[in-house]
């Protein structure tokens, strides 16, 4: 069995066949799909969807959505977190973080939202799902400053030194479709050589499709194929990888243990 620790199943790309996509994932052995929030407008959506498909969800304001986010959205996020603490499908705060790939983002604005959401994570004792695109060092600095020591660095693509720093801080690293491309040598080396205990699987669907769906829509059932590639890179069985990455997902997002079948 597999856990997709990061899937935007609420995205419009799934409007035509969302339930079929979730069913296909279950048929491929994906026991849980974690759906992160990205903005105030989709908090209720991801919660309802997680309950509909038997998945899980996180709540947060994505750095790419900070240009249109209002300061009051943080108040709403706090209220939504408080209301969700009794919900077994609620697993953490995310997707939050920083992005330095998109040049038009206001750095001060995204830093403000990142910092405020880390404060919420610390206050409520929740793990975080972090966006770290070209921002690994600054994301890690925020985690250190605010004392948040659990969660996932999503779609990790940093150096070995950065990976080891995240791991030493208590974070897990998310790997997905990128590792299926032979040209992605750095990601493949990281996925092959980092401690298995640090790795969780994800799709980021509908984005970051594996090589066999290049430029196509990604879906959560692809975790199984991604895992097969990763098992080959590491020279271990898929069963061992399944057991290990499931345990890792539970460690990164402890509330998942409460709902795992």
Automatic annotation (TrEMBL):
A divalent metal cation 2 binds at residues 131, 154. Keywords: Hydrolase, Metal-binding. SUPFAM superfamilies: Metallo-dependent hydrolases (SSF51556). InterPro entries: DNase_TatD-rel_CS (IPR018228), Metal_Hydrolase (IPR032466), TatD-like (IPR001130). A divalent metal cation 1 binds at residues 6, 8, 95, 204. The keyword Lipid metabolism does not apply. Pfam families: TatD_DNase. GO terms for molecular function: hydrolase activity, acting on ester bonds; metal ion binding. Belongs to the metallo-dependent hydrolases superfamily. TatD-type hydrolase family. This is DNAase. It comes from Caballeronia glathei.
């Amino acid at each position: 069995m597999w856990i997709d620790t990061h899937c935007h199943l609420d995205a419009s790309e799934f409007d035509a066949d969302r339930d079929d996509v979730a069913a296909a994932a279950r048929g491929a052995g994906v026991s849980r799909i974690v759906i992160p929030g990205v903005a105030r407008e989709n908090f209720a959506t991801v919660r309802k969807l997680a309950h509909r498909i038997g998945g899980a969800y996180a709540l947060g304001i994505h750095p790419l959505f900070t240009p249109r986010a209002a300061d009051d959205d943080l108040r709403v996020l706090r209220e939504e977190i408080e209301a969700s603490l009794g919900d077994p499908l609620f697993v953490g705060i995310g997707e939050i973080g920083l992005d330095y790939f998109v040049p038009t983002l206001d750095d001060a604005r995204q830093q403000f939202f990142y910092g405020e959401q880390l404060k919420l994570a610390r206050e409520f004792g929740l793990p975080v799902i972090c966006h770290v695109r070209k921002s690994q060092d600054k994301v890690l600095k925020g985690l250190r400053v605010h004392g948040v020591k659990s969660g996932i660095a999503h779609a990790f693509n940093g150096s070995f030194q950065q990976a080891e720093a995240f791991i030493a801080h208590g974070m897990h690293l998310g790997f997905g479709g990128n590792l299926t491309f032979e040209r992605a040598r750095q990601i493949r080396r990281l996925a092959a050589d980092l401690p298995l205990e640090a790795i969780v699987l994800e799709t980021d669907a509908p984005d970051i499709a594996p090589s066999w769906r290049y430029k196509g829509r990604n879906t959560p059932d692809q975790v199984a194929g991604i895992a097969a590639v990763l098992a080959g890179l590491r020279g271990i069985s898929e069963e061992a990888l399944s057991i290990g990455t499931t345990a890792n997902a539970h460690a990164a997002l402890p509330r998942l243990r409460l709902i795992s079948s």
